[in-house]
Amino acid sequence: MIEAELSIVGVASAARLEKGLHSFPHGIKHNFLDLNAKPGEDFFRFANGAFIDSAQLPPGHARWCMFDEVNEQAQTAIKAIMTEAAELGEQGSIEQRQIGDFYLSGMNLEQIEAEGLTALAPLLSMINKSGTPRTFARALGHMHMVGMAPFFGFGSMQSFADSKQQIAATGQAGLSLPDRSYYLKKTKKNLELMRQFEQHVVNMFVLMGESKPRAMRFAAAVCRLETTLARASMPQEDMRNPNNINHVMTVDELKAMVPHFDFDTYFQTIGAPAFSSLNVMQPKFFKAISRVLSKLTKLERIAYLKWHLISTAAPKLGSAFVDEDFAFFGKIMQGKTSQLPRWKRVVATVNGLLGEAVGKTYVAKHFPPYAKARCLEMIGNLSQVLRQSIENLSWMSADTKANALKKMDTVRFKIGYPETWLDYTEASINRSSYLSNALSLTRLAFKRDLAKIGTPVDPNEWHMTPQTVNAYADPQNNELVFPAAILQPPFFDPEADDAANYGAILVIIGHEFTHLFDDAGAQYDEAGNVRLWWKEADFADFMQRIELLRKQFGGYKVGTISLKGDLVSGEAAADLGGLSLAYRALQIAMQKNEPYTDELGFTDEQRFFIAFGQIWALICTPEFAEMQAVSDPHPPAQFRVNGTLANFAPFVKAFATMGVTDESPIMLPVDKRCQLW
C-alpha cells in the first residue's frame, strides 16, 4: 500500500527498566525534574533533567524515551500472548496456532542456522537468470511480492481525485540508507559512512558465498546505483504536498516513460488486477530508472537485486548475517552497543506480520472501556476549542472558515481498535522455517493490497494495529486514529489529574487534529479529495506563519548538523497547534474542578506544561541524534519542547512566578512568534 499519512513518532522516557518496574506515578513525574534548571532558559532540562542525568540506555537501544517505555510494556504483554499461543499448540484456534508457530520458528536458532539460505533459493535462482528484460522484470516482481523494494514500489492507494476509490500507484524506492542526503552530501563524515556502507555490502556478499574480489565489484556497483537513484529521488519535504506526488497517467504512458523495463511481465508476475491508469508519484525518478536500466550491465543488475534480497532477509537468517546487519545498521548508523534480546526481535517480527491477530487478544486483555470513554470526553473539549478558534481567527476569511467547519463536522475518530479484523489463514505458517513464514505473510499482505486496486475504500480499515504506541492523521479519510497502546500511562492515565492528561495525551491528539487543517491538510477537502479549500490569500497568510517556524527550527543544530526547516516545519506547526488547543481545552475542564496545587507548589497550568515537556524526555546516542536530524520530519525532543514553548505566551504567564518573562532566553521576540490556532 502506498500512502502519505501523517503520524507522530514521538520521543520520551523512563529509567526504571533496569529494576524491572514499569509502573508510573499518577500525573507529572516529580523525579524527572531538575529544580536547579531555570524554566525560562531550558524548559526541557527543567522538566527532565534528573531523568537525563541518571537514565542509561538499555541494551540494544540507540534511544530511550516514553514511547519506548510504553512499547516495552506492550512487548511484554505481546510476548505473553505469543508464548501462550505456542503452548496451546493444536488445541488453540487457527490464529493462535499461526502466532505460536511463527514465534517458535523465530526462537529456534539451531533450525535457522541449519536452514541457511534455503528459503531464498528460488529468488536467488531468478536473480541469477535475470539477464533479459523479461527475466529481470520477473525477478523484480517476485521480490516486490515479499516486501523487498529495489528500484520502485507498487501497490494501491486512495485516489487524490476521488478519496472513496482505490487506484494503482508506483513510487520511488531502492535506497538502503535512511535519506538521500547520505549519498549526496560529500562531507568528510558522509564519505566515511559511505565507505563503511560499501564494506558492509562486501561483507554480506562474502557471507552469501561470493569471492572477495567479486563481492567488492558487487558492492561498488550497489553504491554507484543507489547514489544515482538518490540523486533522482524527490526529497521527503517535497512529498508533503500531495500535488507534488499526484501524476495520474495511463499504463501506456508509463511504458513510454520507462521503455527499458518490461511492465507487462512485471504486472503479470505479481498478479496485478486489470487497470488502465495509475499514479506515478515521482515521474522524474522513473525517467531516471529508464536511463539507468538502459546502461545497466548484467553484473550490476544481479549485484543490486542480490543486495536488496540479502539485506532485507538478514535479520531472519543465521547469526553471521544478523551480526553483520547489526554491525552497520545498529552500531555504525545508530551507535548501539548491543542487540536486543532474541525474543524481542522475534516478537517485533511476528507482531508486525500478524498484527491484527495479536491485537485482537491484546485489546481484550489491556484496553478497558472506561479508557475510551474518558478519552472521548477530552476530545470533545478539544473539538469545542478548535471550533471556537476557527470562528474567531482574525486572519481567516468567512469562506475559508465555513469550509474548515464543514471539514470539522465530518472528522472521524478511531479509538482503540478496529471493528473488523484481518484474516491471515491463507498464509502458510509452520514451526520449521522462520524466514519462509515471514515471506508467506508478506506475500499475503501484498496480494491483499493489490486486490484493493479498482475497489471502493474500506472506511473501517486501520493502518496501525491496536498494540502500536503511536497515532496518525489520515487526511484522505478525514480521520484521526489512536491505537489502544498509546492510551496508556504516562500518555493517558485515568487516575491522573486533568492537567497531566491534557498536557500529555491531549497535546498528541491536538497535534494530529491540526494536521487535518495545516498546509498539508489544506490540500484535502472534507471528503478527502485533493482540493485547496482555503482562499488563496488565507493560505498565503498561513504559510507566512509557517515560514516563521521554518526559519526558527532551521536555526537549531544537533552537533554540527543544522535541522532542515522545510522538513520539520510541518510537524513543528502541529506541535504548536496541539499545545495551544490542549491548553485551552484544559481551561474548559478546570471550570468543573477546584484549582489544585500539588505538593511541590505547581499549579494546574504549570503541571500541564511539565506534562508536555515530560512526554518528550529522551536520551540517545550521538549517532541516533544525527540520523534523526537528517531524516526525521519531527524535530528532536529538546526542540519539540523549547522550540514550541518559545512561541506560546500562556507559558510565560504560567511560570511568571518562577522568573519567566517575554525576555527570557527560551522565548522568541513577540514579533517573531508563530500563532496558528
Distance between the termini: 33 Å
* Overall spatial form: globular
- From the coordinates shown, what is the CATH architecture of the largest domain? 3-Layer(aba) Sandwich
CATH level 4 superfamily of the largest domain: Collagenase (Catalytic Domain)
Counted by DSSP, the helix tally is 26
Helix residue percentage? 40-55%
Low-confidence residue ranges: 3-24
Strand order of the largest sheet: 1-8-9-7
Q: In what range is the share of β-strand residues?
A: 5-15%
Task: Describe what you observe in this structure.
By secondary structure, the chain is of the alpha+beta class. It folds into two domains: 6-76 and 354-418 and 462-672, Collagenase (Catalytic Domain); 149-312, Neutral endopeptidase, domain 2 (Orthogonal Bundle), CATH 1.10.1380. The protein has 26 helices and twelve strands. The strands form four sheets. A four-stranded mixed sheet has the order 1-8-9-7, covered by helices on one side. It starts with 5 loop residues before the first strand and ends in a 23-residue tail after the last helix. The model is unreliable at 3-24 (pLDDT under 50).
Could you list some keywords that capture this structure?
677 residues, alpha+beta, Collagenase (Catalytic Domain), Neutral endopeptidase, domain 2, 4-stranded mixed sheet, 26 helices, 7% strand, globular, disordered N terminus
Give a short synopsis of this structure.
With 677 residues, this protein is of the alpha+beta class.
Give the topology, please:
Elements: E1 6-7, H1 43-54, E2 63-65, H2 66-88, H3 94-107, H4 109-115, H5 121-128, H6 133-145, E3 152-158, E4 166-172, H7 181-184, H8 188-207, H9 212-232, E5 248-250, H10 251-257, H11 263-270, E6 277-280, H12 283-295, H13 298-313, H14 319-334, H15 342-353, H16 355-366, H17 369-392, H18 398-409, E7 412-416, H19 434-450, E8 472-474, E9 479-483, H20 498-515, H21 536-554, E10 557-558, E11 561-562, H22 565-590, H23 604-614, E12 618-620, H24 622-631, H25 637-645, H26 649-654
